[in-house]
Amino acid sequence: xLARAIDQxxxxxxxxxLAGLIRWSGxxxxxxxxFQAACTQALESWPRRGLPDRPGGWLTTVARRxxxxxxxxxRPDVPLEGPLAEALxxxxxxxxxxxxxxxxxxxxxxxxxxxxxxxxxxxxxxxxRTLCGLTTQEIARAHLEPEATTAQRLVRAKRKIAxxxxxxxxPAADRLAERLEGVLSTIYLVxxxxxxxxxxxxxxxPDLCAEAIRLGRLVVELLPGEAEAEGxxxxxxxxxxxxxxxxxADGALVPLEEQDRRRWSPELIAEGxxxxxxxVARASPGPYQLQxxxxxxxxxxxxxxxxxxxxxxxxxxxxxxxxxGPIVELNAAVAVAMAHGPxxxxxxxxxxxxxxxxxGYHLLPAAQADLLRRLGRADEARAAYARALELVxxxxxxRFLERRLAELG
Amino acid sequence: MQYIVLIYGSExxxxxxxxxxxxxxxxxxxxxxxxxxxxxxxxxxxELKPTSAATTVRLRGGKRQVTDxxxxxxxxxxxxxxxxxxxDLESALDWAAxxxxxxxxxxxxxxxxxxxxx
Lengths: 409, 118
What we know:
The complex is a heterodimer of chains A (409) and B (118). Chain A has 409 residues and is mainly alpha-helical. Chain A has a domain at 2-90. Chain A is 71% helix and 0% strand. Chain A has helices at 2-25, 28-49, 55-74, 82-90, 105-113, 120-130, 136-142, 147-163, 173-195, 206-222, 227-241, 243-246, 266-280, 287-300, 309-322, 326-340, 342-355, 363-374, 378-391, 395-407. Chain B has one domain (2-111): 2-Layer Sandwich (Alpha-Beta Plaits), CATH 3.30.70. Chain B is an alpha+beta fold and 118 residues long. The longest helix of chain B is centred in the N-terminal third of the chain and has 20 residues, at 19-38. Chain B has helices at 11-15, 19-38, 89-98; strands spanning 2-9, 42-47, 55-60, 63-68, 77-85, 106-111. Chain B is built from three helices and six strands; from the N terminus they run E-H-H-E-E-E-E-H-E. Chain B starts with a strand and ends in a 7-residue tail after the last strand.
């Protein structure tokens, strides 16, 4: 019981402590190793001696001592420099004192681990490891890859940070918007990996969704006033609200219009809507806010037939202007079909099909099949479902498409 | 920290440029080199002759193999480099992004391996 409480406390304080250690030592690897050692020590010491007044400060001080030890052992021949040398000089075995915290350390860490000079998969692994406190094993499990692969990815990323000297800093004001875009897209990748898992039997991996939302909250907290950061958080909350209704008992995907809307989370919808309203009030629109606004309109409809499709189609139009692309077009075509009749949507989808931009993407024939089904053109619908089934990979989606095909008789 | 800024671009693109375009490009490079120098970060660099002037040598089993051309045929070719000394990757990328060829070519930034520190 106590061990669990301590574990939670360490997880909560961890990212802040680790971020501070990285800034202090200028050495990602060393900071992490020392931090792990301090956590282990906390688990041993706290149950016996009771919780310190400021657990974060305790962890920091113990980790700093540990870092100095480690460095001495690693390079006994090299005299210490900078803050590490000062720490060594000050080390008198006195009481464990809490050093001052620099509030934006976690923000520096966020921008460092999401630096575009690191591969996206490495950014994700590093963010989960350092800012969410996940273990290598947990990250590997979430991405369905062998633990050794994740460990290797983390080692390589840390080596690149050190070798190329990626600075531990918040980007300058003129570069902030561009870099924030990268940070948000990394967080959204984590969320999507959790929300529509591409591998494995389970359609949704809620642990990754929760971690992405946690990161989204962190950005909003650390960079107040950024409308798109709020837009992303709202988008994730509103999507996550539908999670309980998205999967049937047999694991099959349940499409939006068939979901039991009573199972949507009213708390998450309320929070997502609130965050979105705050973002929109800043009058600085962007793709995440537009997608969140679309999700909010779905969330607001008590029954599928109450959905404000004309408004959703208009929002997709705006989204296309912000971030054009064939997948957004496909979604816009679906909205147009729902707002103005299946024929209008079908015509758009046929243009997309001819362009070849979505060749191999199962959701295009699946969407065409759905509209053909609504129009009662059963033969064409069957052919389109068959094409979608040739391309679909995830078992949960496959079961859904097979069911639809079977319903056509 | 020293970084090498490797400038890759299409040689075909260069040779198909008009004379005023070439002059304009050189003027931009002179300005860029001047800016690097004025900021105190320039440690060296040069434009390279085209890959048609390149020769590649390998020693295999103690025997020299000399071949015409660059070591690999690529769509974009190494056309020049700068050696700069800046605090970190962020500043190196800032400088690389200002290189005139960043607009149509690719600039690779790599830290130099430091021989024994200190």
